[in-house]
Design a protein that fits this description.
The complex is a heterodimer of chains A (213) and B (399). In chain A, 33% of the residues lie in helices and 22% in strands. Chain A has 213 residues and is an alpha/beta fold. In chain A, strands 6-7-8-3-9 form a five-stranded parallel sheet, with helices on both faces. A four-stranded antiparallel sheet of chain A has the order 2-1-4-5, covered by helices on one side. Chain A is globular, with a radius of gyration of 17 Å. Chain B folds into two domains: 179 residues, no CATH class; 203 residues, no CATH class. In chain B, 52% of the residues lie in helices and 17% in strands. In chain B, helix 2 packs parallel to helix 10. The chains are: A alpha/beta (213), B alpha+beta (399). At the A-B interface, helix 2 and helix 3 of A face helix 1 and helix 9 of B.
């Protein structure tokens, strides 16, 4: 997948409102290999945007296209394949499994494609400073720790685009920087596009383009 | 990795609910299978024992009183036959035709005659005889008469005659191998023919031969005899009809084979079996309902996990699989256990039945197996579709 296009897209709930946005009701293209920042205020539909692109919700007007193909046409098998091989999303609400350990949360995703070795995964845990928590249940971890686990999980798959929805809201600057490094290393290795959203605090790195949502 | 998914999705599985389903289904399935199996095992005792006459055939004769012995005809006139035919309970009527000449029959082995007796033959129209008609014919060229004997004759021989004379007892199968020489005399002629016993009947109290033989022999040995039938065979719509008994009593007739019991017993057996199987089926359906509810509840409780799995790239097929395997696996174990219990229980009752009816043949378990597999397949397919359906609802955000 090389590009994600939005044509005149607008969440249904915003219909009829006076929307001032660089994303909604615009023609926007995200290219593979580039990095984007989507800055948003609360209630401007940031998480909706992520849900539309991952195929979780369809309550929008206008079109969203992957490589020119309307994603409304995608079937179940298409979405499964896209989520496994082309598009990775770090959910704002993380969507981890509290019953499983941190490592298991990563493994359950890695097992789909066997993209990363256990050694590589362990190294990431190490670098993010949660190696000692690998076998701890995610439900018992702080949100900041969970965010790091969720980031690792988002990276253990092949992808053309990586969307991260407020990835560092609960991290200090040091850990944010480490997370940013790891993310960009992997994105570059895969030649992927990166879309970061943020409400205020955002990853300190150079973006090819910044949108105001 | 499947084990991780399983570790996740087995959360909220209620052992109590599934145990409830398991035992209820096992119970229901076992009852259904046992009902069918028992019916299959016992049915031959009632029906196949007398394959020569169907249960809806009655044999009617006139009641013999002291007066009739002094000359009043005990035969049926044409008018009386027509009257019976016209009754609403009656489907068709056939007349017994008796041999009108002398018959001497001698039995022996390997051509040596051992005992002889005078006897007679009777026939009914072929359509009333429920046997393989290729055996049931007479050809004067061949000279072999197929004969059906009352089963009581064999009993009389085996338990009365043979025992007192230290003769070997014979089984039904061996009777067919016995030489039976039949000598017919009348009209100044005599002819020796061979008789062949092709079967026994419990309900037919006569020595039955094909109609073609009686016609041929009466024409040859007693051309001028009066052929008024003494007995009629009546095909009725429902042997348990009250109107039959009324009519019989009104016209001073007698039901010769008051042994409608077999027919009645088969009927009751069928009713009881169907009833038992319905109860079993009901239990099965209820247990199936429990299972469906348990699964819906389970999926409901694990909705969030299932949704997250789908969002990180698991296909609906893959996340449905653990629950599908779980239900199909349980169904399979239930099926297997039902078969095992059925086999054991059948062993017990078959032993008892064998003691009572030594001639009983060992029936097949196949129909019960087939029914069991069909139930298993149907229930499993519905389970698989239901789970898949639920997961698709989560996918489509309807849960």
């Amino acid at each position: 997948m090389d590009k994600i296009e939005l044509h005149n897209t607008l969440p249904c709930v915003f219909e009829g409102r006076d929307v001032q946005s660089e994303i909604w009701l615009q023609d926007v293209t995200f290219q593979k290999g580039s990095t984007y920042l989507v800055e948003a205020s609360s209630g401007t539909g940031k998480s909706s945007l992520c849900s539309y692109i991952i195929g979780y919700r369809k309550d929008y007007l206008g079109d969203i296209l992957f490589d020119g193909r309307d994603i409304r046409q995608h079937r179940v098998s298409d979405w499964t394949s896209i989520r496994q091989h082309s598009l990775s999303l770090l959910f704002q609400e993380l969507r981890l499994f509290p019953e499983l350990s941190a490592l298991e949360n990563v493994q359950i995703k890695n097992g789909l494609t066997n993209h990363k070795s256990l050694k590589e995964i362990e190294e990431w845990f190490q670098r993010l400073g949660i190696a000692d928590k690998m076998s701890a249940k995610v439900g018992r971890m702080s949100f900041g720790q969970q965010q790091r686990v969720a980031m690792i999980r988002a990276l253990v798959q092949p992808f053309d685009f990586l969307m991260v929805d407020e990835p560092i809201s609960h991290l200090d600057d040091v850990n944010s920087a480490i997370m940013c490094d790891i993310m960009m290393e992997e994105a570059r290795r895969q030649g992927a596009g990166v879309i970061v959203t943020s409400i205020g605090k955002h990853m300190d790195m150079s973006y090819d383009k910044t949108f105001r949502l | 990795m499947m084990s991780l998914v399983w570790k996740l999705l087995r959360q909220h599985i209620s052992i109590a609910q599934f145990a409830g389903f398991f035992f209820a289904n096992l119970f229901g399935m076992f009852i259904v299978l046992l009902g069918l199996q028992f019916y299959n095992d016992v049915k031959p005792l009632f029906s196949q024992e007398d394959g020569f006459l169907k249960p809806e055939y009655l044999i009617v004769s006139k009641r013999i009183s002291g007066v009739s012995m002094l000359g009043e005809s005990c035969g049926f006139s044409e008018k009386e036959v027509q009257d019976i035919t016209a009754q609403p309970f009656c489907k068709s009527v056939g007349a017994f035709t008796a041999s009108q000449y002398r018959v001497v029959c001698s039995l022996g082995m390997k051509g040596v005659a051992q005992m002889g007796t005078e006897m007679f033959f009777e026939s009914v129209p072929d359509r009333f005889v429920d046997t393989d008609l290729s055996q049931w014919k007479f050809d004067p060229e061949e000279g072999v008469i197929p004969i059906v004997l009352p089963r009581t004759y064999l009993a009389i021989y085996n338990f009365g005659f043979a025992q007192s004379q230290s003769l070997p007892k014979i089984s039904e199968g061996i009777v067919g191998m016995i030489d039976m020489v039949v000598v017919l005399r009348g009209n100044g002629q005599e002819q020796r023919l061979q008789g062949k016993v092709i079967g026994f009947s419990s309900r037919l109290n006569t020595i039955l031969v094909p109609e073609s033989f009686i016609k041929w022999s009466n024409a040859k040995f007693a051309p001028e005899a009066d052929l008024t039938p003494n007995r009629l065979i009546v095909e009725v719509k429902n042997p348990t009809d009250d109107a039959i008994v009324k009519y019989i009593n009104q016209h001073n007739l007698e039901l010769e084979n008051d042994k409608l019991d077999a027919g009645k017993a088969t009927y009751f057996l069928r009713v009881v079996t169907v009833l038992v199987m319905c109860i079993g089926m009901l239990i099965s359906i209820l247990s199936f309902y429990i299972l469906m509810l348990s699964i819906y509840l389970l999926v409901q409780k694990n909705t969030e996990k299932l949704r997250n799995l789908l969002l990180i790239g698991y296909s609906p097929v893959r996340v449905s699989l653990p629950y599908q395997l779980l239900t199909v696996g349980m169904n399979a174990v239930v099926l297997l256990l039902s078969f095992i219990i059925l086999y054991i229980v059948r062993g017990y009752y078959m032993n008892t039945l064998w003691v009572m009816f030594p001639q009983m043949q060992d029936g097949s378990l196949l129909p019960a197996f087939c029914l069991g597999f069909c139930l298993f397949a149907v229930v499993s397919i519905i389970n698989i579709m239901a789970v898949r359906n639920r997961v698709m609802k989560i996918w489509n955000r309807k849960e």
